[in-house]
Design a protein that fits this description.
The chain is of the alpha/beta class. The chain has ten helices and nine strands.
C-alpha cells in the first residue's frame, strides 16, 4: 500500500473523517483546494499546516448530533439490560429470564459535554424518565466531580483537547458509583486506558461502552475489548444514511462556493 501522502497527492479536496491529515499530507497535495471534515471534531487535522498553506478547512457541526446520540442511547440500553450476555444465553438455549439487567427510569445520566450531541442524548434520556446532569467546558472541577459521584451512567461527548485528554483517569473513576456505566462516544484519549482497565478488573464499573478508541481501528490483541463488561463498536455513531446525505449537501455547497470565491460554510481557517 502506498504511504498516505502518496495516495492523496493528486487530490483537490480531502475528506478526512477519522483519518489523520498531517503537515506532510497537506504539503504533498499539489493542488489542494479544500479540507472538508464531515464532523465537528477535527483533532486529526493539522489546521495550522493548512493555514500556512492557505488551504481552507471546514467542519460540519451538528450534522451528526442525532445519529451519535441514538447510538449512545442504544449502547446505554444494551449495557443496562446486559444484551450481549442475554444473546449468549439465548444462543445456548439453556434458560429463560436471564440475565437480570436494570432499568434506566429513575436513574441519573451525567453528560460530560453538553453540546449538540450531549443535549440530544439528554433529551432522549429524559424521555425514558432519567434525571440528567451535565457539564461543559465552562464548568468547574467541583461540578465534574459532583456529576461523576451522582450518576448511574456517565456519557462522554466532549471534544478532544489538551484540557480533556485523560480527563477520566483513576481519580475520576474512583469517584463514580460502584456498578456505574461509562460511555465514550467522544474520543478515545479522553479516557486513560490503563485506569479504565484497572476499574474494569476491580469490578468497580458495571459496564463500559466504547464507540471511539485510542487507536483506530482498535488492535485485535488488546484484552480490554474481550472483557465481558465492555461493549465496543467501530466508531459508527456518526455514520448513518441521513448523515451522509446532509454532509454531501454541505460538501457540494462548499465546493461550489470555493470555485466561485465565496465564503465557505463552517470554515475553521
Amino acid at each position: 500500500m502506498q504511504p498516505p501522502a502518496t495516495q492523496v497527492a493528486g487530490m483537490r479536496v480531502l475528506i478526512p473523517t477519522t483519518g489523520v491529515v498531517g503537515a506532510a499530507d497537506i504539503a504533498a497535495v499539489r493542488d489542494l483546494r479544500l479540507i472538508a471534515q464531515p464532523a465537528a471534531g477535527y483533532n486529526n487535522i493539522d489546521v495550522e499546516a493548512a493555514k500556512r498553506r492557505g488551504v481552507p478547512v471546514t467542519i460540519a457541526p451538528g450534522y451528526n448530533s442525532h445519529s451519535v446520540a441514538e447510538v449512545a442511547l442504544m449502547m446505554i440500553l444494551m449495557l443496562s439490560r446486559k444484551v450481549d450476555e442475554a444473546r449468549a444465553v439465548f444462543a445456548r438455549r439453556e434458560r429463560i429470564g436471564e440475565p437480570v439487567g436494570g432499568e434506566l427510569h429513575g436513574k441519573t445520566l451525567g453528560v460530560v459535554g453538553m453540546g449538540k450531541i450531549g443535549s440530544c442524548l439528554a433529551e432522549a434520556a429524559r424521555g425514558l424518565g432519567m434525571q440528567v446532569l451535565g457539564v461543559t467546558s465552562r464548568s468547574s472541577r467541583a461540578e465534574l466531580e459532583a456529576l461523576l459521584a451522582a450518576s448511574h451512567v456517565v456519557a462522554l461527548h466532549c471534544p478532544l483537547s489538551p484540557a480533556t485528554r485523560g480527563l477520566i483517569g483513576r481519580a475520576e473513576l474512583a469517584l463514580m458509583r460502584p456498578g456505574a456505566l461509562l460511555l465514550n462516544c467522544a474520543r478515545g484519549s479522553v479516557v486513560d486506558r490503563e485506569a479504565l482497565w484497572e476499574a474494569l478488573q476491580s469490578g468497580r464499573l458495571g459496564g463500559v461502552g466504547l464507540d471511539t478508541h485510542w487507536v483506530e481501528p482498535a488492535p485485535r490483541d488488546d484484552p480490554l475489548y474481550s472483557h465481558p463488561r465492555v461493549l465496543a463498536l467501530p466508531h459508527l455513531g456518526s455514520i448513518s444514511a441521513e448523515v451522509y446525505d446532509r454532509f454531501a449537501n454541505i460538501l457540494c455547497e462548499n465546493i461550489t462556493r470555493a470555485r466561485e470565491g465565496r465564503e465557505l460554510l463552517h470554515r475553521l481557517c
